[in-house]
Each structure stands twice: as structure tokens, then as C-alpha cells.
Write a structure and sequence with these properties.
The chain is of the alpha+beta class. It is built from 5 helices and 7 strands; from the N terminus they run αβββαββββααα.
Length: 238
Amino acid sequence: MEALQKLAGLFIGKTGIFDHSASGKDQTARIYETAIVTDPDRTTAAGEPYTCLRAKAYMVRTEKNKDLIAEIEAGIKKETSVGCCVQSIRCSVCGKDIKAEGCTHQKGRVYGGKRCHYLLDQPADAYEWSFVAVPAQRNAGVVKSFTPGAFAPADPETQALAAAYRTELLGDVLQTAARCVPTLESKVLRSLCADAPADVLKALRDAFRAQADQALPLLRQLQADPAAGENENNAYQI
């Protein structure tokens, strides 16, 4: 559980590609939110409650990736895999660190009534996630997709509130981006965000805001006079 919690933080912002290819042209999506999810009705092969790391990713709708989006929505592109680094891989039977010591047990085999599996621990970094044909973890894959407007429309008042909220979020994104990335044209960012759902806009706003606060911290306009200690009227000065 501790390893999953650390990976949840490491995978924020990581890109989605194909077959673990390191080429930039294969980038298709990016993770903006993660969560640890436990299914009380399922157990692992070790008899523990089934717990997984679930991530939300976004991609821009373009002519280039329209076929990919159609394949995801149809369930054809489904299986995924991840690229990450851990400091420790331990055998569930003997407890030895496979990377440091090695052991004679083989994954999947049963020893003394206990099935051998490897425990990944102490995550050091997360690199990417990929669409693959045959994942190492058979349950890893796309669980759902969301298309704006794919569901029944809400009542007019709710639609108006949602539109106002999205407009406010977009304004915040443009404003915070101007603070930390002044070379990025507003019309370009507005175009990129045209079809982005509210949760993606919120993630972008928070990311730009954090970057802006770090690069351009707010300073107090009224500061104490360095020589104030020499004036007998200090109590009446700002």
C-alpha cells in the first residue's frame, strides 16, 4: 500500500505512449490525477484486499488521434503497462531482495503451500505508461472514457452554472499561465483548452498557479524600515 501511495504521486503529469517507446512522436496523453482504489469484493492471489492505482489522463482531440480515441471508446485499445523504477523487489516466499541477493524461487510456483510472487517496494521514479498488446499485469488497462456531451443534457439552470464555472476556470488558467509562461500566447492556450473538461482545466490552473507562485512570489508592498530601530516614534510607523 505504501508503494502504491508513493507511485500515485510519482505518476502525476507522466505521459502516455505506445509500447514503452521513448520517442516524443508517440506521446498521446498525460495523467493529471491519481487515486488508490480498494475493491472490498475482490482479493489478490495472496488473499489480500484487491487494491490498485487508478489514474485519469487527458488528450487533445486532433485529426491525428481521432482514430485512437475511437479505438479507446470502442474498447479495442484497452491494455496498458507502466514504466517505473523501484529500489527493492522481494520474494514473497523467502523475503530476499531479488535485485541485491537473488533467490531460487520462481514466480507463480507454490512452495510449502505458498505461491511465489515478487513484492515491488520503495518506488524511486515513474517514467511513463503505455498502450500495449499484452500487459505484464493482466488487469491493467483503460477502465472507462468520457466524452463531453455523451450523456443526457442537464436542465438549463445546471447547464448555465456549469458553463459559468468552466468560463471562470478558463479565465484562471489564462491568467496564471500569463504569469509563469508569458511567451505562451493566450489564443494558443485558449485553443488547446477549447474541449478540455472542467477537471482538466482545474488541474492546469493549479499547476500554473504553483509554478507562478514559485517563480514570482508575492512581496509585501509595505516593509519595515531597516533603520526603524533608531527612531523613537517606531510605534506610529508602518
